[in-house]
Amino acid sequence: MICISIMASLICFGSLVQCQKNEIVEDLLNVIFKLKKSKCYGGGQTSIPAFTATLSKDLTPQINEIIIFDSVKTNVGGHYSSSTGIFTSPRNGLYMISATMRSTATKHLHCELMVNEGMKVKIFGTNYSTGTISVVLLLKTGDKVSIKKDHRSGEGILGREWSMFSGYFIA
Ligand SMILES: *[C@@H]1O[C@H](CO)[C@@H](O)[C@H](O)[C@H]1NC(C)=O
User: Fold this and answer.
1) Domain ranges of the chain
2) Cβ–Cβ < 8 Å for 79, 49
3) How does the average pLDDT of the chain come out, rounded?
4) Which of 27, 65, 99, 143 could pair with 89 as two cysteines, CB 3.0-4.6 Å apart?
């Protein structure tokens, strides 16, 4: 009986150590990444994957169209494409992704944040109001993040720097 409980404790302790080990390695990787992006190592903030792009013109999107935010304000690492509207995750990790979209006069606006083919959250605006989303996502290298028009037709998005899509790597 004692033997079994000692064994169980050891197994338990073993998995605890294993768990702590993973967290330590993760912390170390974060420190290394922070060092890499620090000025001392030639990186500076400019090595953190990050983007912001806005819509320069009003748009009447097609059903399921990926919205192309054509006016790029920030694109560190070049992982956002202003020809496809897609941000491609450059590495595994946590990302902050946000979007603000303003609808045109008297119209509703329904859009969706997509990761690959999967919808994560929805965005809604109406009659010149804005819809905003902020999501923290665990992404894998190569995941494709975009804002898509949903299945409803006849809606309008206000451009002229009123609608935007942003994201950055946290850790
Ligand atoms: C849209 O907003 C304007 C300004 O607030 C308001 O006068 C108008 O009644 C609204 N139209 C609709 C269809 O909600």
Assistant:
1) 2-37, 48-169
2) yes
3) 88
4) 143
For 57-84, what is each residue's pLDDT tens digit? 999 999 999 999 999 999 999 999 999 9
Residue nearest to atom 5 of ligand 1 (CA): 127
Q: How far, rounded to the nearest angstrom, does the alpha carbon of residue 94 sit from its chain's CA centroid? A: 8
**How many angstroms is it from 107 CA to the middle of ligand 1?**
10
pTM for this structure?
0.78
- Ligand 1 atom nearest the C-alpha of 106 is 13
Mutate to test the pocket of ligand 1, among 109, 126, 127 (most ligand atoms within 8 A of CB): 127
29 φ, ψ to 5°? -60, -40
- Ligand 1 mean position, distance from CA 27 (Å): 51
Q: Mean pLDDT throughout 96-118?
A: 97
Please give the average per-residue pLDDT across 27-54, as a whole number: 77
Residue 171, SS3? coil
CATH architecture for the domain at 48-169? Sandwich (2.60)
Cβ neighbour number for residue 85 with a 10 Å cutoff: 21
